[in-house]
Amino acid sequence: MDLILPDFGLLIWTSIVFLLLMFILTKFIWKPILSSVNERETKISDSLALAEKTKAEMILLQSQNENLLKEARAERDKIVKDAHETASKMVEDSKVNAKNEASKIIASAHQAIEVEKAAAFSELKSSIAALSIEIAEKVVRTELSSDDKQKALATKLVADINLN
Q: Which of 30, 47, 88, 135 could share a disulfide with 26, CB 3.0–4.6 Å?
């Protein structure tokens, strides 16, 4: 039962030791502990504020990055579109140039054909004329082989000349 009901002397000495301990603790230890706790609290609140500020800056930077990416994509799309337009224009120009060149080549080919055709007709005419003269010469020789036939032809030619 000594544990449940302590002696009066023990109670006084325990109270004196407790008060002495409280005095020593408050005088020498409590202030440094409180100051370090306050410093820690200040550091933690500063760190939280810095973290919030950093988070806000990160959000701002992220939105700026997204805007830059959107602008870069738009610029890329514009460049690709311009390149496609330039390429299609170059293809169209090449087609037009090719058609013009083909037309020129066809025109010069037609001219060459016409020149060759005219030359062929001219050569054919001269060949036909030469053959006609040769045939006429042979016919005239056979027709004019006798003197009577020569006189009749000369008379006929003179009559034709008088009529003209």
A: 30
Q: Answer yes or no: is 2 within a domain.
A: no
User: What is the token pair recorded at 141?
Assistant: 């020789």
pLDDT value, residue 100: 95
Q: Considering the domain boundaries, does residue 74 fall inside one?
A: yes
**Average pLDDT over the chain, rounded to whole?**
89
Q: What CA dihedral angle connects 22, 25, 27 and 32, to 10 degrees?
A: -150
Confidence of residue 3 (pLDDT cuts 50, 70, 90): low
- Residue 152's alpha-carbon distances to 31, 43, 117, 137, 144, in angstroms, are 168, 150, 43, 17, 9
d(CA 30, CA 104): 108
The answer to whether residue 1 is domain-embedded is no
Domain, as residue range, for 108: 8-163
Tell me the pLDDT band of 69, cut-offs 50, 70 and 90.
very high
